């Protein structure tokens, strides 16, 4: 790990200012992704701004019926929250499907959203990788690509966004709230928060330099059956090959977001209109633009089958 | 600003003040600075659970957190749970059920399992919890899922689960 200076931020505003003043500064929350990457010198900040003490750790209803989740709420606390379990069960389910009990005790809402890809070449500093070292090439193209994206990828990068929580948040139409260094606030719909790789795979989100996440807000509850189904190589403590986050209404209509298939949570509203007709109809629209590699072609079938299992579960 | 910092926390009930390089993980602070070598380094990347300690009642991987981030915290390691002759019920249950072979993963398994029983009591859900709105119960399936962050290369898993089930019963 490279040496760095360390600061406990005193306020959201000072944290954002401090981050904007140094382009090698990083916020640190739970540290479970950042420190992992710093040990491998994939991330090399020279200054860490600890944002844990800013009071961003509460979950509160808003006066208009939404739920505001502080950026530093731990994954365990979010999954255990009574309102979330009752009205946004999908989010609880996605959270407890991720990582381990120990990690969820540290991992935060903001940090989880911003976790970086698990592409093995991104992690191997001896290999070319456009995300880690822009312009060096993509080792996954023509390499081992079993875990990689089948949708929305580019010639520069075929990595997936690896997280579970954000897939549920995408289905729930969450909004990411931020504060910029000059003090302005922004509300970024989750659909626009994560980016496709294009020719700048190193830029993963809509966040600007120094911009700090303060909360994630969920719209008023929409009812329905909340199902998160994650398919992985072992029963627990593994990233998704494919995951499906769904809210299914009694009349068969609903919402579906898919994880493990793209550089961002994947949702196609036109596919949702087909849900009452079944998984095949919905999946054919959801996956219409799929461009799998020979090694990850299985994901196309897996999405359809997982969606089928979700719809069967919803019918009871 | 400096590349090192002072931090004070309580370890197993004793307050300690340390001057550390900012890069020092809590795990390295425990092992290298405080010579509490019960906590083990397996992977150093959050993947094995050997470094599990309990901070303010919650289990965490001490390899993925910085010592300087724990100002004022109360940390419990395997050394603080019980001592030879005065074992924690979970330690006694691991001995009774042969919940280990080489023992390397064991401090992490025990810290984790002590916290798991508290998590179930506090009604924190897991991936295998059937009903999110009902009370969580101690079952083998729950224990296996909740312990999935602790790997055992010797494969003592079935005895570990037996030990935890027994410790859960003793306390109930
Ligand atoms: C072994 C292992 C298994 C895992 N398995 C899974 C899994 O199955 N599913 C899953 O979803 N995840 C999994 N994870 C990833 C885990 O969920 C993330 O590491 C965690 O959520 C990151 O949160 P954190 O608070 O620790 O973030 P940190 O590591 O502290 O930060 C991550 C990033 O967010 C930035 N950041 C933090 N807070 C803010 C803020 N307020 N504003 C702006 N930027 C901020 C940091 O600068 C950093 O770039 C796993 C991790 C490990 C180590
Ligand atoms: S897929 Fe993306 S992250 Fe993986 S090697 Fe290619 S550029 Fe790097
Ligand atoms: S040493 Fe910390 S999880 Fe392996
Ligand atoms: S007892 Fe040897 S690793 Fe678990």
UniProtKB/TrEMBL annotation, chain A:
Pfam families named among the record's database cross-references: FAD_binding_5
GO molecular function: FAD binding; oxidoreductase activity
UniProt cross-references to SUPFAM superfamilies, sorted A to Z: CO dehydrogenase flavoprotein C-terminal domain-like (SSF55447), FAD-binding/transporter-associated domain-like (SSF56176)
InterPro entries to which the protein is assigned, alphabetical: CO_DH_flav_C, CO_DH_flav_C_dom_sf, Diverse_Substr_Oxidored, FAD-bd_PCMH, FAD-bd_PCMH-like_sf, FAD-bd_PCMH_sub1, FAD-bd_PCMH_sub2, Mopterin_DH_FAD-bd
FAD-binding PCMH-type domain segment(s): 1-223
Keywords: FAD, Flavoprotein
Gene3D superfamilies noted in UniProt: 3.30.465.10, CO dehydrogenase flavoprotein, C-terminal domain (3.30.390.50), Uridine Diphospho-n-acetylenolpyruvylglucosamine Reductase, domain 2 (3.30.43.10)
Full protein name: Molybdopterin dehydrogenase
Native species: Pararhizobium antarcticum
């Amino acid at each position: 790990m490279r040496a760095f200076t360390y600061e406990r931020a005193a306020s959201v505003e000072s944290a954002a200012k401090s981050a904007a003043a140094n382009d090698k500064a990083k916020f640190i929350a739970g540290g479970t992704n950042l420190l992992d990457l710093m040990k491998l010198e994939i991330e090399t900040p020279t200054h860490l701004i600890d944002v844990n003490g800013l009071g961003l750790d509460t979950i509160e209803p808003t006066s208009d019926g939404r739920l505001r989740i502080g950026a530093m709420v731990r994954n365990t606390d979010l999954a255990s929250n009574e309102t979330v379990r009752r009205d946004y069960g999908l989010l609880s389910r996605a959270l407890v499907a991720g990582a381990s009990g120990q990690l969820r005790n540290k991992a935060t809402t903001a940090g989880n959203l911003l976790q970086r890809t698990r592409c093995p070449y991104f992690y191997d500093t001896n290999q070319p990788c456009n995300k880690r070292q822009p312009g060096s090439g993509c080792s996954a193209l023509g390499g081992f690509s079993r875990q990689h994206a089948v949708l929305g990828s580019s010639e520069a990068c075929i990595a997936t966004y690896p997280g579970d929580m954000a897939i549920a948040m995408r289905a729930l139409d969450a909004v990411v709230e931020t504060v910029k260094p000059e003090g302005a606030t922004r509300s970024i719909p989750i659909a626009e928060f994560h980016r496709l790789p294009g020719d700048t795979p190193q830029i993963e989100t809509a966040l600007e330099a120094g911009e700090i996440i303060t909360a994630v807000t969920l719209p008023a509850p929409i009812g329905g059956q909340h199902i998160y189904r994650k398919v992985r190589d072992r029963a627990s403590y593994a990233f998704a090959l494919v995951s499906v986050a769904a809210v299914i209404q009694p009349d068969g209509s609903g919402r579906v977001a898919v994880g493990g298939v793209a550089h961002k949570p994947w949702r196609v509203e036109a596919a949702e209109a087909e849900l009452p007709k079944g998984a095949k109809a919905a999946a054919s629209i959801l996956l219409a633009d799929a461009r799998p590699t020979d090694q990850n072609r299985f994901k196309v079938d897996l999405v359809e089958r997982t969606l089928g299992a979700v719809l069967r579960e919803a019918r009871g | 600003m400096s590349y090192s910092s002072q931090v004070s926390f309580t370890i197993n009930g004793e307050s300690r003040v340390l001057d550390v390089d900012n890069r020092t993980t809590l795990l390295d602070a425990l092992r290298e600075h405080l010579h509490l070598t019960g906590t083990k380094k397996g992977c150093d990347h959050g993947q094995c659970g050997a470094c599990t300690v309990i901070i303010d009642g919650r289990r965490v991987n001490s390899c993925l957190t910085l010592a300087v981030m724990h100002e004022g915290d109360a940390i419990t390691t395997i050394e603080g749970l019980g001592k030879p002759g005065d074992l924690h019920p979970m330690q006694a249950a691991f001995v009774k059920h042969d919940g280990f072979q080489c023992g390397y993963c064991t401090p992490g398994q025990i810290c984790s399992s002590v916290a798991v029983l508290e998590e179930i009591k506090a009604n924190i859900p897991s991936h295998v919890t059937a009903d999110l709105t009902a009370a969580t119960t101690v079952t083998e399936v729950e224990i296996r899922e909740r312990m999935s962050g602790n790997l055992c290369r010797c494969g003592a898993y079935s005895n570990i689960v037996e030990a935890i089930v027994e410790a859960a019963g003793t306390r109930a």
